Amino acid sequence: VMDIPHALFEEKLEAMKAAKGVDNDTDLTANDLRELVGQYKNVYVEAKGEQFPSDPKRQLQLAVLAVFDSWDSPRANKYRSINQITGLRGTAVNVQCMVFGNMGNTSGTGVLFTRNPSTGEKKLYGEFLVNAQGEDVVAGIRTPEDLDAMRDHMPEAYAELVENCEILESHYKEMMDIEFTVQENRLWMLQCRSGKRTGTGAVKIAVDMVNEALVDRNTAIKMVEPGHLDQLLHPQFANPEAASYKGKVITTGLPASPGAAVGQIVFTAEDAEAWHAQGKSAILVRTETSPEDVGGMHAAAGILTARGGMTSHAAVVARGWGKCCVSGCSSIRVNEIEKVVAIEDKMLYEGDWISLNGSTGEVILGKQPLSPPALSADLETFMSWVDEVRQLKVMANADTPGDALAARKNGAEGIGLCRTEHMFFASDERIKAVRQMIMAPTVELRQKALDRLLPYQRSDFEGIFRAMDGLPVTIRLLDPPLHEFLPEGHVEDIVRELCAETGAAEDDVLARMEKLSEVNPMLGFRGCRLGISYPELTEMQARAIFEAAISMTNQGIQVFPEIMVPLVGTPQVCLSSRVSSLDWYKGVPSLHSWCS
Question: What CATH code is assigned to 108-197?
Answer without folding.
Answer: 3.30.470.20
